[in-house]
């Protein structure tokens, strides 16, 4: 796969872009050159903007594969908050994690492409650990709110860690067999949460 060099911009006001345009250009370059072999300058040139413009959208190259992750976490909080109060806590978390992992099939870059990069790129592993911690914290906050304790208490923290482990196990199965439904695999994996949280 090749990319078309961006035409030079006239001097003056910096060009505008979007998260989607940056991600599509970046993923094209990642596929062609590898993640490590792609620089922010390469991405900026492919989009047709300056490097400084990229920083208005993403703090680093490592953030691009994660998309608008902060907004995604806000959506996750809303999903959990919308679960009926009468549901057992394990089921509320279960439903929330499954719903969070339902993605449109026409997304570009596709969710599978995004996760293959995140899960399979050594240079992203340290950054991914930070993102996973933020994801776990959303669950811990919800559990703590339901139980009237602190998010840093042992049980909310445990539920966050267990939920992440189960979700990642589902992704591992999906990477091996893309014909299976990701949401179905997450649902199957999350059923194990009942053994850890039955209140």
Automatic annotation (TrEMBL):
InterPro entries: Homeodomain-like_sf, HTH-type_TetR-like_transc_reg, HTH_TetR, MftR_C, Tscrpt_reg_TetR-type. It holds the Pfam family TetR_N. Coiled coil: none annotated. Gene3D superfamilies: Homeodomain-like (1.10.10.60), Tetracycline Repressor, domain 2 (1.10.357.10). Keywords: DNA-binding, Transcription, Transcription regulation. It comes from the Bacteria. Residues 16-76 form the HTH tetR-type domain. Residues 39-58 bind DNA. PROSITE patterns: HTH_TETR_2. PANTHER family: HTH-TYPE TRANSCRIPTIONAL REGULATOR RUTR, MYCOFACTOCIN BIOSYNTHESIS TRANSCRIPTIONAL REGULATOR MFTR-RELATED. This is Mycofactocin biosynthesis transcriptional regulator MftR. The lineage of its organism: Bacteria, Bacillati, Actinomycetota, Actinomycetes, Propionibacteriales.
């Amino acid at each position: 796969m090749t990319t078309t060099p961006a035409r030079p911009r006239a001097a003056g006001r910096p060009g505008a872009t979007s998260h989607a345009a940056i991600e599509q250009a970046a993923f094209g370059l990642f596929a062609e050159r590898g993640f490590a072999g792609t620089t922010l300058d390469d991405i900026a040139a492919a989009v047709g903007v300056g490097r400084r413009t990229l920083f208005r959208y993403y703090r680093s190259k490592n953030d691009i594969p994660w998309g608008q992750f902060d907004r995604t976490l806000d959506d996750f909080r809303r999903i959990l908050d919308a679960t009926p109060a009468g549901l057992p806590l394990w089921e509320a978390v279960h439903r929330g994690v499954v719903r969070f992992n339902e993605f449109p099939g026409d997304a570009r870059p596709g969710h599978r492409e995004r996760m293959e990069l995140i899960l399979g790129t050594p240079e992203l592993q340290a950054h991914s650990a930070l993102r996973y911690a933020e994801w776990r914290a959303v669950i811990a906050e919800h559990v703590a709110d339901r139980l009237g304790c602190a998010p840093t208490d042992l049980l909310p923290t445990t539920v966050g860690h267990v939920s992440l482990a189960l979700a990642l196990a589902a992704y591992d199965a999906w990477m091996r067999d893309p014909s299976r439904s990701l949401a179905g695999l997450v649902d199957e994996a999350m059923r194990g949460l009942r053994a850890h949280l039955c209140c």
